[in-house]
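User: What would this chain look like folded?
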Amino acid sequence: MITPAQGSPKRRYAVVGVGSRAGMYIDALAGTHADGGDIVAWCDTNPVRMSYYDRILSAVGRPAPARYSPDAFGALLGEQQPDVVIVTSPDATHDRYVTASLRAGRDVVVEKPLTTTLEGARAIAQAAASSDAYVIVTFNYRYSPRNSTLRRLIGSGAIATVTSVHFEWAVDTVRGADYFRRWHRDKSVSGGLLVHKSTHHFDLVNWWLADVPDTVVAAGALRFYGEANAAAHGPAPRPVRSTGARGASTDPFALDLAADDTLRELYLEAEGVDGYLRDRDVFTGGVSIEDNAGVLVTYRSGAILTYALNAHSPWEGYRVSVNGTDGRIELDVVERGFVQPLGAAGLVGHPPVDPGGAGNPRRAGERLLLQRHWDQAREIAIPEGLGAHGGGDGRLLDDVFRPDPAPDPLERRAGYRDGLRSVAVGIAANQSLETGLPARISQFGLPLERGPRPGDRQV
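Assistant: Here's the prediction, encoded as structure tokens.
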């Protein structure tokens, strides 16, 4: 497909899946990137959610897009002729829309993870190999200045050859709990946190090292959330859902959809159509994902990754240590030093944050240290970032929606091979969890070598 040059007609976009995930892209095309394209079609199971985004477009003078059900996605491609399909549907459906779009010659912008299964990964790889269209996987953490600075340091040879990486991610009990309310709690839909959440982290390591993962060993369990752990968190029985439940206003794990306009309009008022509950109690049955996990990954270069994920931490952030033959780099990030109970009125994604008072020794911030052998540690300045995901979202959207993105020596714009490499680690980790044995990514039959950047085949 041909990417339009500056001054050419706007691109036509279709959006598949119009839940909260889609908001970032829709807001961009209705605002800061309105000059770059028009949304011509929605594809979703729920007309209430499509109407919600109709109103957002109407407020800026844009017409309501045509509506299609998932079963009519082929008709959407034929009738609306989108140039780009934005896929923000539940994870297990991504491969269906990505492969159909590529076969029709449509470019794709897809939320992470690229897919949840090995079968889906193979289908996408096959479709991409025979298509002139391209895929952008929206790994917004690549664009965060702190992560970009770490990539630049490693690439500059500051510690010579990387021998190992330790990566620890702590998800706090506001954001972490939310994975156990929504469809993410079902591993058949999300792939579990080692696919849905950790694909961000595995991609960062793959990208930092410019390397290909090979062997994976994993351990994990549901130790905090779920029905078996309910007794440790309050009197039984737990309600099926939070909204309208007795005692929800004092329950730190409750979420009242009626108390937030966005959640009310997108989900509570849409329940009558499909019965989807956005506020299931995190200590009820039906949770099939892990909340604690550890992964060991070896790379083709010989480098080793040790990775840990915890989804019930009292603070949120991550720690990365990169060891090399000439020294060590350490990145410490505190995104929230602590969170107050969400209660019935909090908005998921924007939890109450530590105000930075003197009484809290763990304050939001970031620090990057470089220490070479026989030398003292040196702090590396991190450029300021704006927006969510460590300042990465705005830069990502520029890359996605600008027709001629500036050359980027850091190669932050991720294609389908990047998506395959990251999700392959999560899929292999899930295999290891099931079998108790190492999983070999090299036996998956996927094209994992670093190929062209998204759009490189365009003329």
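The radius of gyration is 22 Å. If you want, I can go into more detail on any region.
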